[in-house]
Amino acid sequence: MNELTAILESIPIDPLTGALAVPIYQTSTYRQEAPGVNKGFDYTRTNNPTRKILEDVIAKLENGKNGLAFASGLAAIDCVVKLLETGDEVLAVDDIYGGAYRLFTTVYNKFGITIKFVDTTNPENVSKAITPKTKLIWLESPTNPLLKISDIQKISEIAKKHNILVCVDNTFASPIFQKPLNLGADIVLHSATKYLGGHTDVLAGLVVTNSDELGEKLKYIQNATGGVLAPFDSWLIIRSIETLKIRVEQHAANAQKVAEFLQTRPEIKKLYYPGLKSHPNYDVCRRQQKLPGSIISFSLKEDTEENAVRFVTSTKIFKLAESLGGAKSLLCNPATMTHKSIPRERRISSGVTDSLIRLSVGLEDAEDQINDLKQALDKLSVTDADKKHTNHELYV
Ligand SMILES: *Cc1c(COP(=O)(O)O)cnc(C)c1O
Q: Structure pTM?
């Protein structure tokens, strides 16, 4: 069956009334016939019919068995980390999402869980960094904001040999472009706040596994710690999933055009988009993902915060805001916004320089998006020498 048809078919029609839209079970509790005798639901922290439908739909979409829905992407990450014990070590991609960096380094370090960052774009670096304490490999692919792509299949093979779990934050690719469980990962995770929600109106996190043992452990932690997704917010994500495939494909088509335009501009120092041949992980991306997605980052020749601020306050269609994956185009300066919790030295050495700008290419017409970026770039000064350097060698 065609994937879009399968997605639409996976969302059930209400057996009680025939309602096409999933009912919102806005209830905290359920009447029991006798203590412990119920219809599968006893308290909404543990289980809720609307949330359950979302959990089943995302499990199918990721080709897994067990789905779980959380109040945010970070609540989902937090649940996965709680599989670990004091003394365990995590190996994580060096260009990790700022919020995950903060969680690992300022919350879990207190509990004796340590994290080691490696450039996972080379699987050998992962092999070398593994110690007997390593229990979890944390990948994001593509990463936020530098769009690094890691070979999920190779890294999962390495991890299996050492009995290490692999969790992939699949937020940027969405389940339409990449299914990490098919590539050997144990856990896949989403900030559904982004493409799955798709309309910048809800916070949510999703986790899927294809092992019942792992699924049960995570479900236990979810219920024990309580960061569950509310019924109405579950409903919003279900509704958005109906159009997910059409949206992300249009986002990606626009992004390819925008990236090709940016490639010609002398104001830009480095351009990061895995759909360009100049991207160092272009081949892995083509093998691993259906399409490269719709996040583009670039740094400016004059690599200062002031120059970045000049740019991000000049665009009109691209709105200055944190977050990504919504219908409207957004842009941000990670150094002063999403990644300010990462120490400057670490941030710069990993490539997130002061002028770096991240675009979330939305669903407006690509020509309008390009014209908006063009007028903002025209406001930046460039030297005559810069103008000569719009060739590919300059681009990462
Ligand atoms: C936004 C984001 C998160 C965190 O999700 P929230 O829903 O904001 O808690 C995690 N990972 C990635 C890659 C993200 O972009």
A: 0.95
